[in-house]
Amino acid sequence: MTTPNPLPAGVDGLNYGFGLVISDVERLPAIWHNGGLQGWSSNLVWLPQQRVTLVALANALPAVPGVEPSGITHELAKHFLDEEIKNAPLPKEDKTIDPRTYYAYVGRYDYAGGIMTVTVEDNRLFAQITRQERFEIFPRGTDDFFWKITDSHVHFLRNEKGEVVAAQHTQNGNIFRAPRLAAASFEPTAEQLDAYVGQYLYSPLAVMTIKREGTQLMAQLSSQPEFPIFPVAADKFEWRVVKASVHFNKGEDGKVNKAVHSQNGVTFDAPKVD
């Protein structure tokens, strides 16, 4: 049950045995799994070397951001196993990797709730995730990099042509794939984006809030998570987490007066209220 099954070539995923995930928690070997149904979620982590089991339960699915069960068990590990974590071996930087290869990773990667932007500066590779600071990431092997400020790493995935097409991110025992975003056909300026910032009335009980973070527009509907939206035209943007788009309409005074939302074959107007 605790032996990861080999996956076909080119397939990325968890180190998964028979019903159990095998990965590190704060650099300590661990065996774990999440669980959940409508109304509840959970996470159970077993650290065999420390003979410790951590369990977190939540009466929500999806869990409330910031208090997900997996995040709680990792915080518990850091609290109860502080000395073991301090003595755990740190990732080793592979100094044989040629910095000239870093340019293959430059671009933006879709993290669903944000964007990871990868840049090169002075032969060093940097990654910045929406609403976070920019940090240098260090090679530990070909296409494999890690952060020194947190227990996380990213493996850049390539297609059959050798082109980087995605980033596989690992953190807190969670592994997910972030597709590389194609260059936008239209790159709006900050001034153009500011014209769309505000609140739009989607219904008597729902408001869509649009704000700008750098050159990225973020959209959040009442009681839902915030997601980036991407330009497809000067005044039209789309979501990547769902098939939906919004067109910002301007009145005779040249100011945005409404958003026209399209999703699942339905289109409706959302007046700008702020």
Task: Describe this structure as you would to a colleague.
There is one protein chain. This protein has helices spanning 69-80, 82-87, 190-194, and strands at residues 21-25, 28-37, 40-47, 52-58, 107-110, 115-121, 124-129, 134-141, 144-147, 152-158, 164-171, 174-179, 198-203, 206-213, 216-221, 226-233, 236-239, 244-250, 256-263, 266-271. The protein has 274 residues and is mainly beta. An 8-stranded antiparallel beta sheet has the order 5-6-7-8-9-10-11-12, with no helix packed on it. A hairpin with a 5-residue loop joins strand 10 and strand 11 (164-171). The chain is globular, with a radius of gyration of 21 Å. The termini are far apart. The model has no long low-confidence stretch (mean pLDDT 89).
Tell me the number of strands: 20
The largest sheet is: 8 strands, antiparallel
Assign a percent range to the helix content: under 10%
What's the overall average pLDDT, rounded?
Answer: 89
- Tell me the structural class: mainly beta
Broad shape: globular
Query: How many helices?
Result: 3
Query: According to CATH, what is the topology of the largest domain?
Result: Lipocalin
Q: Which CATH-level-2 architecture of the largest domain?
A: Beta Barrel
Distance between the termini: 55 Å
Task: Note poorly predicted spans.
Answer: none
Order of helices and strands: EEEEHHEEEEEEEEHEEEEEEEE
Strand order of the largest sheet: 5-6-7-8-9-10-11-12
Radius of gyration: 21 Å
